[in-house]
Amino acid sequence: MPRISGLPYILIVLAGLIWGLTFSLTIIATADSIHPVVLTTAQSIICAILFALICVVTGIRPFRLKNLRYYAVLAVLGISAPNLLYFFAASHLSAGILSITVSTVPMLTYGLAWLLKLESLEWKRASGIILGMLAILLLVLPDNELAGSDASFWTLAVLVCAICYSIENLYISEGIDKSVEIRELLCGSNMVSAVILIPVMSLQGFDFVPLFLQSNALWAVFGISFSSTMAYMMFFYTIRVAGPVFASQCAYIVTLAGVLWGIVLLAEVHSIWVWVSVVVMLAGLALVSPGTKLKNLPLK
Fold first, then answer.
1. What share of residues in the chain are helix, strand, coil (percent, to 5)?
2. For residue 91, which phi and psi values (nearest 5 degrees)?
3. What are the sequence ranges of the domains in the chain?
4. 8 Å CB contact between 280 and 100
5. pTM here?
6. Angle at 154 (CA atoms; ends 40, 272), nearest 5 degrees
7. What's the pLDDT band for 151 if we cut at 50, 70, 90?
8. Is-contact 251 102, C-beta < 8 A?
9. Were 247 and a residue from 177, 185, 201, 239 both cysteine, which residue would form a disulfide, CB within 3.0 to 4.6 Å?
């Protein structure tokens, strides 16, 4: 079977464009003051249903009790915790800033992989990550977009999401049995996330009625769920075939897309430094090459 060396690049670009949209949708979803716990629970339920349908249609078993430990780890690190933080932070930060924080994922992933001796030190790839981080500085430091009284706190809070995603990246690549099908993994983890969040929501006295009374929030959550479903499929597959560090470069595309979607949909205004950072980010992405896994596996 011929290898398609450009496929990982295509996948991270598409996933990044789709994921970048979710930050603007997050701002829209929280505009009606619906509690983040409700929004996060709704998203988990909708994603679980979507992935279950995908599994049924494609003949994949959506849940296996023996893989519950995998689902649980991903439910916390990749779904419940980061989604809650993003929904809480959405009323304090712009879509552009929310998306910018994602660009810390490649640095953290590479750092953790290097510390755990899962990745060797390659100056070309490291330089690309450094350029990506420089792009963040070009976006954040010259601007006044973080001037709010609590914006710095929420910026640090959403950086915790990047830490969660970085650990998740490595866990998917190194901690999960390769025989576990990606569609099953995504379905099961969203199911577990919903099971965790529904009791939390009930104990807090929330229900879904306010969500469905607000059309903007309803459609925004559906949009986030559908977009996340498609993006996760592409992203997880890229981790399997090209490695976690390469796949995490998707964060740069997410950042660019998030800034642009915020401008188009929410009329967010950014300085010239945004466009300077675009060039630096693209240069950083160009320096990153697929990991060794790509050379050993045929893409299909």
1. 80, 0, 20
2. -85, 0
3. 7-296
4. no
5. 0.81
6. 110
7. low
8. yes
9. 239
